[in-house]
């Protein structure tokens, strides 16, 4: 066979062969522990404690700035852009200092004052009462090592920062207002106390629309006539009452029983508010007769009473019943027959 002692696979040291003994390596263990300045110098430890306390106080101040900006700066209908920018600036700075203060303080506390010894131990399951008592002792040891009992200034400022930190979130969520209940069921499209019906008007100029103005394939963004004259609550009323008006070939419409009088010669009107999360449905595909919500791509089939054919929306767009008055103008014969806007779990459907 020949001599292969010159580095061949059978005799060379580059490849391990079966039967060879693997070389064992000694466990190097943990590296030597390096003491920090706060471990050896009481003044440095006290200085680090003051720094952590200051960071927690900064967090509290940031939360207070947020709350003051949120409640003290009144944004009315006549607020100028400078006031809005000031509030946004203070809200952002308040949130940043509130979160960064408490987060940086905890990190600095852990790095400068808490024990940093590395520990290696075998993992084992907790099965006996002795093991459970040992686990409780470990938790107690951790609490003791943090020094939270020996450092009341850090403990108290941390508790204070953690108590006030959620307040901005609570303020924002609370300002979302009460549940809609039946508020989304009533809009400006309802006839007045004398039975006068509301005309459909162009958005945004408020010009009434005649049926003759609506040609096949056209689409109008519509608001109730008189909306622009409101002095208070205009935006809230518009958010509920905006409508898309379109005209199709009447033969293309699949009308459910009971809705025969809700349209006029192929002219139909539907709520513009998507039933997913309330985004404005603003895109009309003339060839396919589809309405598209640009936020999450919910798609509604106009020929089938705006039934959902794609996307996350769970129900069709509410239809506004319309007719023509004696002067040829389009009017709403009644309010929507169901609440407009997004769906939610406590909502009742008609």
UniProtKB/TrEMBL annotation:
Keyword Iron: yes
Alphabetized InterPro entries for the sequence: QcrA_N, Rieske_2Fe-2S, Rieske_2Fe-2S_sf, Rieske_Fe-S_prot
Rieske domain span: 267-331
Chain segments annotated as transmembrane: 52-73, 89-110, 158-177
Subcellular location: Cell membrane
Pfam families, A to Z: QcrA_N, Rieske
Domain of life, per lineage: Bacteria
Keywords associated with the record: 2Fe-2S, Cell membrane, Disulfide bond, Electron transport, Iron, Iron-sulfur, Membrane, Metal-binding, Oxidoreductase, Respiratory chain, Transmembrane, Transmembrane helix, Transport
PROSITE patterns xref list: RIESKE
Keyword Transport part of the UniProt annotation: yes
Entry membrane topology: Multi-pass membrane protein
Protein task: Iron-sulfur subunit of the cytochrome bc1 complex, an essential component of the respiratory electron transport chain required for ATP synthesis. The bc1 complex catalyzes the oxidation of menaquinol and the reduction of cytochrome c in the respiratory chain. The bc1 complex operates through a Q-cycle mechanism that couples electron transfer to generation of the proton gradient that drives ATP synthesis.
Sequence similarity: Belongs to the Rieske iron-sulfur protein family.
Protein name in the entry: Cytochrome bc1 complex Rieske iron-sulfur subunit
Species this protein is from: Sinomonas halotolerans
